[in-house]
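A protein record pairs a chain with a discrete description of its three-dimensional fold. The following entry can be read in just this way.
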Amino acid sequence: MTYLVWYLLLPLVASSSVLQFQDESPDTFKNPRVESLPKFRYWLPDASVAVEAVQRDISDLASAGAGGLEFVPFYFYGNPSDAPPPTDWNKFGFGTPAFSNLFDGALQAAADNSILMDFSMGASEGQGTPATAGSPRRAMHLVCNIQLAFLDQPLMIIIVRMYYSF
């Protein structure tokens, strides 16, 4: 079923990228649209980082000519697997109020600086989506917000892929 959905969506996504560039003129090389500018990956160690520091980083990216960033809460990266977390993840972990506040601040900074912000929330972000061990919810993956350039409004498509049967 998943393959069928992707086969149905692939022509739409491919045609949207072709149509997206048909309206561009030589002047867009001097002043490219934000979608054409480089994006950067921003790894967040955890939500103990000051909101102002993240907002300043996003502002600096925009000032340097970035069109956007991929915001990745990539906790515990580079630490030994047997080491304890560097901060209290009950307070600063993925999905906590501190994380939500930081995430809102990052979204606001991206909007204030007129750049795009991509984000992923799944099994590898925040060391896993919050769910009870053994829960079927741990086996779901959402794919959403596929934007097709030839439509007047963004089209919101949500696909739930199940990795095992219950």
